[in-house]
């Protein structure tokens, strides 16, 4: 085969065969196909798109380019959840113990944060002693024993995707539905889950800003998952403002723990229940999605969800006493109120800007090498739809230093306050199921 023929074929709008896609992915991963030819192909795909079969082939070839985690020795249907990323998204931390508490095995691989959205592994490290480093055999043992383990992604998961994603980032080819969907799904398939619930965020703070684009991406991923034999569904959820009130590692853990105690902000709780019910239903632990939800509500009310959370924390070396004693979390030195300069109704809270403010406080990384401060972050005291008086606290900053004028400015810029009454945004826009 010759790479130039494959590029020309796609450039001219023809579908690539399984053999051609596999040959490209293998050759590119090994370094036998140069970046300039891979970029030309990515650009051809950007303009000409790929059909469903090509997308599924690209996904499988990328998944098979590195380790494929074999979870077959874990009993039952393993459920996984993936979010396309948002500010304040701590759902995994509440959701994983929640569904494990109704007997669904959760073998979750998560990443660290880069840029303005945080990573689950960083957040979990705010629990003193907690470690997500383990080999596959320990990972499987923990899931078999406790129904739950959360591990950092292994070094050799989907190397083809890593290489191609970095190349797309600098060649203007990130924004192709075929390439995004295959990239995300290749990682999910390689991580070994049988059932996958996708949380596709939409809105100003999301990767996909419009509902139409989010639906297109969700459909593409559900089609790929289904085609390669995984039960897959997607929920389109709001990211026009950060999720919940807390942004920052330790602060988000506290909020997730609150949800498992039957407290916490309504949006986080609702999203966990919606995503969780689909995971439980796909894992065949309930007759219907409504019955699954009831089971989840029961384990929150009975305290079983908190019991599983504590077991999970202990099993991964963490101090489970944090669940009952908030003084054990890393604490920020300063609590600084950012106050409203006008009265009115909150119309917008640009999630990206709040993410950047949290990053500037030290909660996130601008580069891979940056150290993060687990204690810092912010609490949104007012959300879209709330009425504020001039001088009311909009946000409380948890900071390591007292002079955070720049951050205060970013936070104020992120809020739009208007005279007319505003409505709370819809939390769940759509659910997408396999046909
Ligand atoms: N996230 C991914 O993992 N891949 C993409 O291509 C885009 C977002």
Explain the overall architecture.
The chain has 435 residues and is an alpha/beta fold. It is built from 16 helices and 13 strands. It has helices at 3-11, 18-30, 35-48, 52-63, 91-100, 120-124, 136-146, 159-169, 177-190, 211-227, 249-260, 266-282, 289-302, 304-315, 351-361, 405-414; strands spanning 79-83, 106-110, 148-152, 195-202, 231-238, 246-247, 334-339, 344-349, 377-380, 387-388, 393-399, 415-418, 428-433. A 4-stranded mixed β-sheet has the order 1-4-5-13, sandwiched between helices. Strands 6-9-11-7 form a 4-stranded antiparallel β-sheet, sandwiched between helices. Strand 4, helix 10 and strand 5 form a beta-alpha-beta unit. Helix 4 (52-63) packs across helix 10 (211-227) and helix 5 (91-100) runs parallel beside helix 11. It is globular and about 65 Å long. The two termini are 36 Å apart. The mean pLDDT is 95. It binds uracil. Uracil binds next to helix 9.
Short structural description:
This protein is 44% helix and 16% strand. The chain has 435 residues and is α/β, with parallel strands linked by helices.
Keywords:
435 residues, alpha/beta, 16 helices
